[in-house]
TrEMBL record:
It comes from the Eukaryota. It comes from Drosophila busckii (Fruit fly). One of its GO terms (biological process) is phototransduction. The lineage of its organism: Eukaryota, Metazoa, Ecdysozoa, Arthropoda, Hexapoda. This is Rh3. Residues 72-335 form the G-protein coupled receptors family 1 profile domain.
């Protein structure tokens, strides 16, 4: 294949290492061994090498992301697994999401090493490891978020019928990884799609740039099953939750108005509903973060397969890669903010974190005792 690239010459010339080194402005992949060049989409090899400072900045940013995510998600996995009060069927899905986020950041040493060595330093082997882990954790996180939305929908809208069991939760997790496996195997064996470097050649993902029908079909399929389907489920279930909560609240207010009382709920019922709604809010927040972080990646892959590829500069494609990692850092802190039992267990096991969380049970007991004392005093 031969075509001119901004006066540099044809692609066959650009791909020769001696020509790339001789250029006034070195091109991406100048330091890649000739036998490794075939693994890199030609689209990236036509761009100038980025300044070293940008690679160092990204490498440093990923070090920060990695430390934050491993600590945060590690605490979620440890506390939710070790605390008996948190080992509920619903929380098995929470643990799986934390595992996906944790493993997603376990592959970042490959990115960091490549960044500090200016490109495709770990070669195709590092790229395959990066792609495999990224696919399992990315698809796993999207499917887990969808099942969390389904579970919250059942708990809030059908509390008596839709109870989650340990068996059902484990079956969901097995399904999630079986769901991701065909895409991973297809790319790794290159029977349909492949894992290739992208952007500054420091990260890897599935190929969305090769100009043929198979690639376009693969991109459309993986976009539909790993992004569109989970996102549609998330939007449907949470819209149903919001609708149910609003209609339930309206019905209670109307009934209270008819009975000339302020509220139909007891203190116990109020606290119970508050806990459920807070958990639902946490799940909605995490799913929103998932949507915000993965949408740029989905759009980028569609542009690469079906749109104007000149929009996909190396620098632009590193932004979606960063947003995907950033959400893995934020998720565990959403749980820490919104889950009272998690904060209680964290306070008990890690007192050095200086978390101040009151025990809900003791608070309700104290409140009940105070009410009884007031009633006795009034009677006297």
């Amino acid at each position: 294949m031969e075509y001119n690239i901004s006066g540099i010459g044809n692609v066959s010339t650009v791909l020769r290492p001696e020509a790339r080194l001789a250029a006034e402005s070195r091109l991406l992949g100048w330091n890649v061994p000739p036998e490794e060049l075939r693994h890199i989409p030609e689209h990236w090899l036509t761009y100038a090498e980025p300044p070293e400072s940008l690679n160092y900045l990204l490498g440093t940013l990923y070090i920060f992301f990695t430390i934050l995510s491993l600590i945060g998600n590690g605490l979620v996995i440890w506390v939710f697994s070790a605390a008996k009060s948190l080992r509920t069927p619903s929380n098995i899905l929470v643990i799986n999401l934390a595992i996906c986020d944790f493993l997603m950041m376990c592959k970042t040493p490959i990115f960091i090493y490549n960044s500090f060595n200016q490109g495709f330093a770990l070669g195709n082997l590092g790229c395959q490891i990066y792609g495999i882990i990224g696919s399992y954790t990315g698809i796993g996180a999207s499917a887990t978020n969808a099942f969390i939305a389904y579970d919250r929908f059942n708990v809030i809208t059908r509390p008596m019928e839709g109870k989650m069991t340990h068996g059902k939760a484990i079956a969901m997790i097995v399904f999630i990884y079986m769901y991701a496996t065909p895409f991973v195997v297809a790319c790794y064996t290159e029977t349909w799609g492949r894992f290739v470097p992208e952007g500054y050649l420091t990260s890897c993902t599935f190929d969305y740039l090769t100009d043929n029908f198979d690639t376009r079909m693969f991109v459309a399929t993986i976009f539909f099953f790993s992004f569109f389907c989970p996102t549609s489920m998330i939007l449907y279930y949470y819209s149903q939750i919001v609708g149910h909560v609003f209609s339930h609240e309206k019905a209670l207010r109307d009934q209270a108005k008819k009975m000339n009382v302020e509220s139909l709920r007891s203190n116990v019922d109020k606290s119970k509903e508050t806990a459920e709604i807070r958990i639902a809010k946490a799940a909605i927040t995490i799913c929103f973060l998932f949507f915000v972080s993965w949408t740029p990646y989905g759009v980028m892959s569609l542009i690469g397969a079906f749109g104007d590829r000149t929009l996909l500069t190396p620098g632009a494609t590193m932004i979606p890669a960063c947003t995907c990692k950033m959400v893995a850092c934020i998720d565990p802190f959403v749980y820490a903010i919104s889950h009272p039992r998690y904060r209680m267990e964290l306070q008990k096991r890690c007192p050095w974190l200086a978390i101040s969380e009151k025990n809900a049970d003791s608070t309700s007991v104290a409140s009940t005792s105070t009410t009884q004392e007031q009633q006795q005093t009034t009677a006297a």
